[in-house]
Amino acid sequence: EGRVRPLARGSPLRGPLLWLFLFVGASFVVSLLTPAPLGLSLPFIPDRYESVLFRLLENAWYLLTLLAAVLSASRVLRAAWIYHLLALGAGLAGVWALFEAYGIDPLRLIDPDARVGINVLATMGHQSYVAAFLAVVLVFWTAWRLLGDRLRLLDAAVIGLLTTCLVASGGRAGLLAALITLSLLGLIWLRRRRRVRHLLPLAALILLAGALPLLTSPHARTRLDRLGSAVQGEDPATSNRFIFWQLGVRAILARPLTGYGIDAFGNAAWFFASPEEAEQLLTEFLPERTAARAVRLGNLALYRVPSGVLTLRPVKPYRVHNYFLDVAFAS
Fold first, then answer.
1. Which of 21, 70, 134, 137 pairs as cysteine with 166 (C-beta 3.0–4.6 A)?
2. CA atoms of 213 and 88, how far apart (whole Å)
3. By the 8 A CB rule, do 124 and 130 touch?
4. How do beta strands 300-304 and 310-314 pair?
């Protein structure tokens, strides 16, 4: 109601905002010591200063969060404006991901020598991150318009664009999260309001917008095929994650209070793996035929490459592949 001063003494926002200030400052200091995180090179700028510049760009997300928290607690901006700004940011990230899904990488327009991966990055580094961002904004925008009992042409455009970009990004976790959440939202809406005035057009719009990239984008179709293989238990990457989760839970139960430290999973996981699990884990790093003949020495694998040369390489799963388990395992 405009009566909260975010940084005033006693304000509930004071603590979180001060911590956010400290986080942004510490992240900037760390950026002085780390290499540039993006595959983009800037002319006439040394690598060290590139790192600082890119870290400042990354911190822009947190600074925008800080700005939104302050403004939402004052009379400067209405909540509707913040939703529109959030949708604008998601739309821009989504369009970038859409270009990448169709084989057009915007980074190449800026720097022809930019390092481009096989997955959608959309300036966030991984398709899972941009998919999570798009899923959250899609759910928030849909719920907001349903609560307002209004569906404008702009709302249909935003929901359709975010859905198309979300499916095209190939982020399976974000896609499943949005699908489950929107389905539950629809059921709750029907139970409480007993109206289908907006639900049927929204459902049709989401289905059509989601089908578009599946019919036209090879990247989206490949990711959907992998999702189907994962559901059927035929995707090696997903099967290995089940083992990671089992090993992570066993390790956490063995040391629930102190954990094993950051980035320790690659060393500790092998102590909790059965011989069968250890053999299957090797297929995460080596071709299946090579893994079957490899000899594991701790977290090293000794094997012979097709040319006949003996090779010794580390085989260290770098995380449990679940945010909650990763935190519990480390600490």
1. 134
2. 21
3. yes
4. antiparallel
